[in-house]
Each structure stands twice: as structure tokens, then as C-alpha cells.
Amino acid sequence: MPAQLAVIIHICSTKVPYASAGKEAIAEIPEIEEEMKLALRDAARKLRLYLSRKERELELLNKYVSLAKYVDEIAVSLSAITNVERSKIAASLYKLIENKLGTTAEEIAKYVASIAGNKE
After folding, report:
1. What is the mean pLDDT of residues 47-60?
2. Are 92 and 82 in contact (CB under 8 A)?
3. 67 vs 86: CA distance, rounded Å
4. Three-state secondary structure call for residue 38
5. Most CB atoms within 10 A, among 29, 39, 58, 107?
6. Domain of life of the organism in this record (predicted)?
């Protein structure tokens, strides 16, 4: 079930058309209703863009973690086969992952730190 959401819209004007003398509700004027609907759509669009960007970042992080998990094991095996130093192979594999994903380990670490900071 989706989370509930309450939307509060503030209308600022010197001539707000109230529905009654008690000023508890705004009169149903099509122009005001249309502007409120457009403002709500604009806010929803911005929220959707923000959430999709965060989702892509999280997906990229998961891909990096999945690939980096095997780097040491692959480097050891390749080192045994090729007689090349394990650290050089591991560095090359990390660089290959970064090139493939289009991001660096430092950027991913910064993103993870920002996520951890937001949860606290």
C-alpha cells in the first residue's frame, strides 16, 4: 500500500475569494483550482525526477559492489596464471569496473557516506 501524503497549498493574495465569512475555505473558482493543480503536478514531476535519480545511483552502487566483490579472487587467480603482481591486476580490474560503470570508487564512497549521514 502506498504511503499517504498530505498536501498543503498556501495562497497569498490581497483579494482571496473565500467561500464564507468565516474564511475557512476558498471559493471554488476554476482559475485558482487550475493553478493549484498545475503547481501540484510540477511538484510531483520534480519529486519523480529526484526519486528516479536516487534509484539510478543506488542501482549503480549495487552494480559496483557486485563486481568489486570478486576482484581480489580474480586477481589472485590471474596472478597465479600470468605471474603478474596481484596488486597490479586488482588495480586494473577496479579501473575496468570504473570505466564500465562511468564512476569512480571515490564518488561511490562519497555517495555511501551521504546516505549514511542522511539516515542518522
Report:
1. 88
2. no
3. 17
4. helix
5. 107
6. Archaea
